[in-house]
């Protein structure tokens, strides 16, 4: 049995890898097509109209070659994809550094931010959702529902602006932006500094994403509390607390896990806007800069990395559910024997 | 009736259960599901409440257990061992002295093994031994304990829940439709387990739609129709049509395969359009003017009937 399920896992992972490859190919291709269709002229965007006017035709031709203006889009994509398969992500045209390095640096900043937002929104959202759903119609439930609906209809960047105005500008408790203090040497930046700079963006990100996980968990919890097996547990004299703990939590956990790992993409998308508002030097901000400046290698690099992370999140959810849910465990074993 | 002298284990008097519903968003409407229902269960006795699907039988079980949904309300009196069965008392008795055996596997937590559910999470030696014994008594081996509900057959799931009930040594067992979906032999076997519990001194309230199976095991039959009881008869009364007291029971009798399989015309009324008087009046061959008025539940030939006529 053991060996069987290992082989099952192997096949499962192999299947996922193929899907992943197809996904990355399609995502990078569409991102590339979008950039090449975009009306932004990399020369005007990065060099400026006035500077271009004062240049000689030879200089302009050199710049055009650098930004790849004359080359047909398909040829550029194929040459990028060829390099990418050899493990070479190319050089960022804007930062004049290897794309891999830029992404690495930016990802380190963003990852902390996104992980914090993801954990906070997941943990809080799940807990509050359980609370609201278990005591449906109660005071806590009504307040949480109100909060959830307000937050679900609030754009993340607007909330970020509000936080910025209140906590950074009015109260001056927290810094206005950037990942580190301005005018301080790189070596002198402490971890506490970095933490202080991440608080507002992380709050903006998590406050909005709490609502979706909370409302979904609440809905599921209500279903569970009205289920036959909870009725039976009550008939057997189990206390409310025990019912929530023994029957509610495990049965709500599965859909909540799937949802929260799926929410990785939302947090990723939200981080682009929030980082922009706080001028936070993360991946999201780099993506915006690359997109507006026509920095194709960097943009494609970021696109691929994002696809990986989102895909990885969903795959983790699948794996966890298969490990937790006895019905799925059995289905996998059955798939092996037949 | 003989049971009258002793205090019955469970006595339900004039129980009505209704639901509050919202129709077209703002109109609040009371929907009566059970109306003026009375019955008694003595210790060591098995009473079957027999009625067709949708007549509100399960609500009776939930009502006695104090597990009605939040939008339901009830009136009437429920006595247990001679004293009113209050919410306070129920809290102490539920799952200990009074147990519910529900319909099927959907009443088991899908993510928890059978053994853990029978033991209700207890891990000590004594509980393990009790659980093993209870399962063994119903022909379920040790391996059953590690199975999840979706891996149980319908009959196994029922036996698991019977085992869970029995290990508490209950005084009152309420079995809500324990037989649907089982083939005849398995259903008979499940019912015989309830009979055993009655033999051992517990009162058993069996709620079922299957009159023939109920007759095999129960002492008394309460005929349930459109939210109320029309007759209370001894199981032995069902040997002859003339001994039965209500036209509906007689129709049921004639509907049984061995008695001619004749279906009575018409259908059971539901919820909103219940008649003012006798609920069976629209289908009754003997109907008369006074049937439009509420009919009292009265004694007749050692049983009880909700009908004006002595038939």
Q: How would you sum up this structure, described in words?
A:
The complex is a heterodimer of chains A (338) and B (311). Chain A is mostly helical and 338 residues long. Chain A has helices at residues 2-37, 42-46, 49-53, 57-67, 73-85, 99-134, 139-152, 156-170, 191-225, 228-235, 240-262, 264-277, 283-293, 296-324, 326-337. The mean pLDDT of chain A is 84. Chain A contains 15 helices and no strands. Chain A has a domain at 108-337: MetI-like (MetI-like fold), CATH 1.10.3720.10. Chain B has one domain: Rossmann fold. In chain B, the strands form 2 sheets. Chain B has an 8-stranded mixed sheet, sandwiched between helices. A 4-stranded antiparallel sheet of chain B has the order 2-1-4-5, covered by helices on one side. In chain B, 26% of the residues lie in helices and 25% in strands. In chain B, α5 (154-166) runs parallel beside α6 (184-199) and α6 (184-199) packs parallel to α7. The longest helix of chain B is centred in the middle third of the chain and has 16 residues, at 184-199. Chain B contains 8 helices and 12 strands. The mean pLDDT of chain B is 87. By secondary structure, chain B is an alpha/beta fold. Classes of the chains: A mainly alpha (338), B alpha/beta (311). Chains A and B meet through α10, α11 and α15 of A and loops of B.
């Amino acid at each position: 049995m053991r060996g069987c399920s290992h082989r099952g896992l192997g096949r499962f992972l192999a299947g996922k890898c193929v899907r992943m490859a197809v996904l990355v190919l399609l995502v990078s291709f569409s991102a590339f097509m979008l950039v090449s269709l975009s009306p932004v002229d990399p020369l005007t965007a990065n060099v400026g109209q006035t500077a271009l006017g004062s240049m000689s035709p030879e200089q302009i031709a050199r710049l055009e070659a650098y930004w790849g203006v004359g080359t047909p889009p398909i040829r550029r994509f194929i040459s990028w994809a060829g390099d990418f398969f050899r493990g070479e992500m190319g050089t960022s045209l804007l930062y004049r550094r290897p794309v891999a390095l830029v992404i690495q640096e930016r990802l380190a900043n963003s990852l902390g931010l996104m992980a914090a937002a993801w954990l906070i929104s997941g943990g809080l959202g799940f807990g509050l959702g359980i609370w609201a759903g278990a005591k449906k119609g109660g005071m806590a439930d009504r307040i949480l529902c109100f909060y959830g609906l307000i937050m679900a209809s609030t754009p993340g960047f607007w909330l970020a602006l509000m936080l910025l105005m209140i906590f950074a500008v009015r109260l001056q408790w927290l810094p206005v932006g950037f990942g580190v203090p301005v005018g301080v040497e790189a070596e002198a930046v402490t971890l506490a500094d970095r933490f202080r700079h991440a608080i507002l963006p992380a709050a903006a990100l998590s406050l909005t994403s709490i609502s979706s996980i909370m409302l979904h968990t609440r809905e599921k919890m209500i279903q569970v509390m009205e289920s036959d097996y909870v009725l039976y547990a009550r008939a057997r004299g189990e206390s409310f607390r025990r019912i929530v703990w023994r029957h509610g939590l495990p049965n709500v956990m599965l859909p909540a896990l799937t949802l929260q790992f799926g929410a990785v993409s939302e947090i990723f998308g939200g981080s682009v806007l929030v980082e922009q508002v706080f001028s936070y030097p993360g991946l999201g901000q780099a993506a915006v800069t690359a997109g507006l400046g026509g920095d194709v290698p960097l943009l494609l690099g970021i696109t691929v990395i994002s696809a990986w992370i989102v895909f990885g999140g969903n795959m983790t959810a699948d794996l966890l559910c298969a490990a937790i849910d006895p019905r799925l465990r059995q289905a996998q074993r059955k798939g092996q024997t037949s | 009736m003989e049971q009258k002298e002793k205090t019955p284990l469970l006595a339900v008097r004039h129980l009505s259960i209704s639901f509050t519903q919202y129709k077209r968003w703002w109109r609040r409407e009371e929907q009566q599901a059970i109306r003026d229902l009375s019955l008694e269960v003595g210790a060591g006795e098995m009473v079957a409440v027999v009625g067709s699907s949708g007549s509100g039988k399960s609500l009776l079980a939930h009502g006695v257990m104090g597990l009605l949904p939040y939008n339901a309300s009830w009136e009437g009196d429920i006595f247990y061992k001679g004293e009113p069965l209050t919410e306070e008392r129920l809290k102490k008795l539920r799952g200990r002295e009074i147990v519910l055996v529900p319909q099927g596997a959907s009443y088991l937590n899908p993510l928890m093994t059978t053994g853990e559910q029978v033991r209700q999470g207890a891990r000590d030696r004594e509980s393990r031994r009790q659980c093993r014994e209870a399962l063994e008594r119903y022909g379920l081996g040790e391996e059953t304990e590690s199975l999840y509900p979706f891996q149980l057959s319908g009959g196994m799931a029922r036996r698991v829940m019977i085992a869970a009930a029995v290990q508490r040594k209950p005084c009152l067992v309420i079995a809500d439709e324990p037989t649907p979906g089982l083939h005849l032999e398995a259903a008979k076997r499940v019912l015989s387990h309830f009979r055993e519990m009655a033999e051992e001194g517990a009162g058993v309230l069996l709620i079922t739609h299957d009159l023939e199976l109920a007759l095999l095991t129960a002492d008394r039959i309460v005929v349930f129709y459109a939210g109320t009881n029309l007759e209370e008869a001894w199981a032995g009364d069902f040997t002859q049509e003339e001994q039965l007291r209500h036209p509906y029971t007689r129709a049921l009798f004639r509907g049984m395969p061995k008695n001619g399989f004749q279906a009575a015309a018409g259908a059971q009324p539901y919820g909103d359009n219940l008649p003012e008087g006798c609920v069976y009046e629209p289908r009754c061959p003997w109907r008369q003017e006074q049937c439009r008025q509420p009919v009292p539940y009265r004694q007749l030939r050692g049983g009880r009937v909700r009908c004006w006529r002595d038939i």
